[in-house]
Design brief:
Radius of gyration of chain A: 19 Å
Pathway (chains A, B): Polyol metabolism; glycerol degradation
Number of strands of chain A: 12
GO biological process, one term (chains A, B): glycerol catabolic process
EC number (chains A, B): 2.7.1.121
Protein name (chains A, B): phosphoenolpyruvate--glycerone phosphotransferase
Distance between the termini of chain A: 37 Å
InterPro entries (chains A, B): DhaK_1, DhaK_dom, Dihydroxyacetone_Kinase
Number of domains of chain A: 2
Shape of chain A: globular
Number of helices of chain A: 8
Oligomer: homodimer
Strand content of chain A: 15-25%
Largest sheet of chain A: 6 strands, mixed
Chain lengths: 336, 336
């Protein structure tokens, strides 16, 4: 394993320390130094009084998800776990507390057994303390119904859209019920599917998580390297993109005349030049269905460490979701 | 080779087509379809009347450099060549023409023999047509004095700082001489050095550009995978970072009390979590010298296809450069 790390056991903390120092104007990382409270990433300027808080989190290794989305118009706090490991309930509870100024908090949870359980425990704790907390579970991955880590579908890159749009609804002044409702509407209308060209290497393990031949790829890969639908021989980008777009569009039941956000996401080790090739192919496939790609995002936002590969996420838009997507956002990783 | 491409020979054009479609509000890619003129990337809204134009370009494979920096506050046009190959003079000349509204154009050129030659030819052509054109050559890489591609030092990630600051000076209303002078001041005060953990694979070649053992890294790597200073055994991030920061800081002659921009750049295949570890280590090394890290940038901006690795760039700041760095920028890859 060759990685730019010191102690693999402290990879998350060392990275967060650099992140905090580089972006002190935007974020504050709580709990890095001892003695201190639980580890989570909050806004440098603290929670916004009167606004519904929006909090997310999960295992590390998917950066910039979630810490890179803390800031105006998106998340109030993000909770990192160890690499590919759910954050503990005390961390989640601390983040919920920090994001709560009395208007309630929405917790955005990717559908993994550990995340769902730990967030549930933390939410109960926060509620027992008097906070109003609602939860939305993201399960956008159409690849598999259950997996090593999940009952039901996995939450993957579509999570970004849920966080962005819920964050914008909160800024707009929506109540907790309203923010939760719009987040739920995103979940109902977003689907994703990914492909791995290589496996990723968890620092503390030191070797790739699975073997993939020099001439095969894994279609429907999960963001922890968990198995997808099937392995196929390496093929041109057009063919691979079709294997991602078709299941996504079919599952969404996209009809001619609809408008969508098309998000092509890199898994961490794939250069942006290749992501744009996939984007161009995916866009054409959607247009062949009569679908209008009204909004676009291309980049490595929901990653799997150093994995090479990409995912395609499609969100069905309506006027409200489009407006909330367009609303200003100012975070480390998303800014417009 | 596993890459998300269709025809490796059309990798640049296919990628640019996706880029153009994804960012139609910001950029326009000229010359993609036949019959058409030379290939270059301009602003969607065209050149800004009365403003000095700023143009850059070079071989592809370093994305988002340069096309990702086209837009308000940075470049007016970018000229892509084939992968790791200088753009032809006709492309450069077309970009210079597009960026010229009568106030003159600054060409930002990375110091590679082919780039220098082809830009020179294009600049002469544009001048013969009556345009005022100045050139600044970036040679920030302290690793080697000459290389396979270069007489003198290579231009690497410091180019981003030159483009950002020259672009801001042009927006401020500086004359061509003034924009060229401030760009020259950035070149005089910026230094970089990189490390490769893996080689990159040029699509049309199909295999890694060099062999690097499972337990060694190349210190002082160039952005085309050309050799650096030496190979060393893989080491913790702190040690590797010192091998990058010390030559950069020494060459700059940084003194206690100075303020700098610290830019940790990913080579394309390295996840941001590792870049933040390097950033944290580099920052501490600079602080140990009494230097203040006043501005920061962390991300994969000047890449070498899928290479794993990172570079450290340090720019000595003064009040003017700091203000120009902070000035608003709105491009695909940089936005604040």
């Amino acid at each position: 394993m060759k990685k730019l790390l010191d102690d693999p056991a402290r990879a998350v903390e060392d990275s967060l320390a650099g992140f905090a120092a580089a972006h002190a104007g935007l974020v504050r990382v709580h709990g890095l130094d001892e003695p201190s409270g639980p580890l989570f990433v909050g806004r440098a300027d603290g929670a916004v009084a009167g606004k519904v808080g929006v909090v997310s989190g999960g295992g590390s290794g998917h950066e910039p998800l979630h810490a890179g989305f803390v800031g105006d118009g998106m998340l109030d706090a993000a909770v990192p776990g160890a690499v590919f490991t759910s954050p503990t309930p005390d961390r989640v509870a601390a983040a919920l507390r920090a994001a709560d100024t009395g208007a309630g908090v929405l917790a955005v949870v990717k559908n993994y057994t550990g995340d769902v359980l730990n967030f549930e425990t933390a939410v109960e704790l926060a509620q027992a303390e008097g906070a109003e907390v609602a939860t939305v579970v993201v399960d956008d991955d159409v690849a598999v119904e259950d997996s090593l880590y999940t009952a039901g579908r996995r939450g993957v890159a579509g999570t970004l859209a849920v966080e962005k749009i819920a964050g914008a609804a909160a800024v707009r002044g929506d109540s907790l019920d309203q923010v939760a409702a719009v987040a739920g509407r995103v979940v109902a209308n977003v689907r994703s599917m990914g492909v791995a060209l290589t496996a990723c290497t968890v620092p503390a393990v030191g070797r790739p998580g699975f073997d993939l031949g020099d001439d095969e790829v894994e279609i429907g890969i999960g963001i922890h390297g968990e198995p997808g639908r099937r392995r196929v021989p390496m093929a041109p980008a057009s063919e691979i993109t079709r294997l991602l777009v078709d299941p996504v569009a079919d599952d969404l039941g996209l009809a001619a005349g609809e408008r969508v956000l098309l998000f092509v996401n890199g898994m961490g080790g794939t250069p942006s030049s290749e992501l744009y090739v996939v984007y161009g192919r995916a866009r054409r496939l959607l247009e062949e269905r009569g679908v209008t790609v009204a909004r676009s995002l291309v980049g490595s936002y929901v990653t799997s460490l150093d994995m090479q590969g990409a995912s395609v996420t499609v969100l069905r838009l309506d006027e409200e979701l489009e407006g909330l997507w367009d609303a200003p956002v100012r975070t480390v990783a998303l800014h417009w």
